[in-house]
Design goal:
It is a single chain. With about 260 residues, this protein is an alpha/beta fold. It is globular. The longest helix has 20 residues. The mean pLDDT is about 95. The chain is built from 11 helices and 8 strands. About 50% of the residues lie in helices and about 15% in strands. It has a single domain, classed as Alpha-Beta Complex (2-enoyl-CoA Hydratase, Chain A, domain 1), CATH 3.90.226.10.
């Protein structure tokens, strides 16, 4: 996968596995990146050289713009739609099942699936620029796949606010107050300082204790393999509508 198509890399140092993803379209997530990200997270969970994982994206602007609009408008049938949205399900489930703590580095805006990633890490640290928006309803879909992860982290009330008012940005401080972010820093240097400090502490903690604690964090989500696939089928069906195609094309024209 070339840089023009995006990439997913992992670097391991001092028992910390840092996973970085990138796509030139504001770190959006086409199917190839989603599948690779799920695989890399799963492998990191099995690697005895890794005690803790940091998930980050490249660049200094958006953390993640969510689904790839180019791939969305190219979907021609419900089965292809299911496969595409199942990519988000695979990433969320990979993070859920990973026995290592995952620290999220949310340096900029998170939209749609990007909010889902932020909600699926175990400890999200952000900057004040990390505004959030669940924009799916505005294009005729809905945050069906990421919804369980966002609701688990923020509660039904905050999730429904984001899902219903799909064109409104909410501040990083709002996201922290509602449980999505653990900490919000004024700049990336301060955020990275905090991430490095926490990752260092966790790298020296008991892997067995962290694995058991993570099971506690995710208790009650054991059915998500099935649930998120069912949700992916809903999105895969809705994306075929004329409403969605027209709305996405309008968004692309403005970009």
């Amino acid at each position: 996968m070339s840089d023009t198509q995006g990439y997913v890399n992992i670097e391991v140092a001092n028992s910390i596995g840092t996973i970085e993803f990138y796509h030139p379209a504001s770190n959006s997530l086409p199917g190839a990146i989603l599948n690779k990200l799920a695989d890399v997270i799963t492998e990191a969970g099995k690697d005895d050289n890794i005690k803790v994982v940091i998930l980050r994206s490249a660049g200094d602007r958006a953390f993640c713009a969510g689904a790839s609009f180019d791939e969305l408008v190219a979907i021609q049938d419900a089965e292809t739609g299911l496969q595409f949205f199942s990519g988000f399900a695979k990433v969320i489930n990979a993070m859920r099942k990973c026995p290592k703590f995952i620290i999220g580095r949310i340096h900029g805006k998170a939209v749609g699936g990007g909010v889902g990633l932020a909600a699926s890490v175990d400890y999200a640290m952000a900057t004040e620029h990390a505004y959030v928006k669940l924009s799916e309803l505005a294009v005729g879909i809905g945050p069906f796949v990421v919804g369980p992860a966002v609701e688990r982290k923020m509660g039904l009330s905050a999730f429904s606010i984001l899902a219903t008012d799909a064109t409104e940005w909410r501040s990083a401080e709002w996201a922290r107050e509602h449980g999505l972010y653990a900490e919000v820093s004024g700049d990336t240097d301060k955020m990275d300082e905090g991430i490095n400090e926490l990752a260092g502490k966790l790298a020296n903690s008991s892997p067995e204790a962290m694995a058991e604690l993570k099971k506690v964090y995710w208790q009650g989500t054991e059915h998500w393999d099935t649930l998120l696939t069912e949700r992916a089928a809903i999105s895969g069906r809705l994306v075929l509508s004329d409403f969605t195609r027209n709305a996405i094309n309008k968004f692309k024209a403005k970009a």
